[in-house]
């Protein structure tokens, strides 16, 4: 894993995040994070995957947020 392989999450409202998951476009979960710190900016290490579009799902107590991201080598 290179030093630049990370996912940055900006959380200005300090929403408590329970878990974060990354999925490929086939719907397969490729990475899961639990015990997320409650900070304004969260940086999570990401394994190296093939270049492409992935879906990041963020889970809190009351909501779920999904965003598409592009990973490239």
Q: Which structural category do the helix and sheet elements fall into?
A: mainly beta
State the helix count.
0
| Radius of gyration, in angstroms, nearest whole number | 12 Å
What's the shape? Answer: globular
Low-confidence stretches: none
Helices and strands, in N-to-C order? EEEEEE
Q: Provide the spatial order of strands within the biggest beta sheet.
A: 3-2-5-6
Strand content: over 45%
Task: Summarize the entry for a quick read.
This protein is mostly beta strands and 73 residues long. The protein is 0% helix and 55% strand.
Give the SSE map:
Elements: E1 6-10, E2 17-23, E3 29-34, E4 41-45, E5 52-60, E6 64-71
Antiparallel strand pairs: 1-4, 2-3, 2-5, 5-6
Structure, explained:
- The protein has no helices and 6 strands.
- The chain is mostly beta strands and 73 residues long.
- It has a single domain (6-71), classed as Immunoglobulin-like.
- The strands form 2 sheets. The protein has a 4-stranded antiparallel sheet with strand order 3-2-5-6, with no helix packed on it. A two-stranded antiparallel sheet has the order 1-4.
């Amino acid at each position: 894993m290179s030093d630049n392989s990370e996912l940055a999450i900006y959380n200005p409202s300090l929403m408590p995040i329970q878990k974060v998951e990354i999925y490929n476009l086939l719907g397969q979960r490729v990475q899961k994070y639990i015990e997320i710190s409650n900070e304004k900016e969260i940086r999570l290490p990401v394994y190296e995957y093939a270049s492409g579009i992935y879906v990041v799902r963020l889970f809190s107590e009351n909501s779920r947020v999904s965003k598409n991201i592009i990973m490239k080598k």
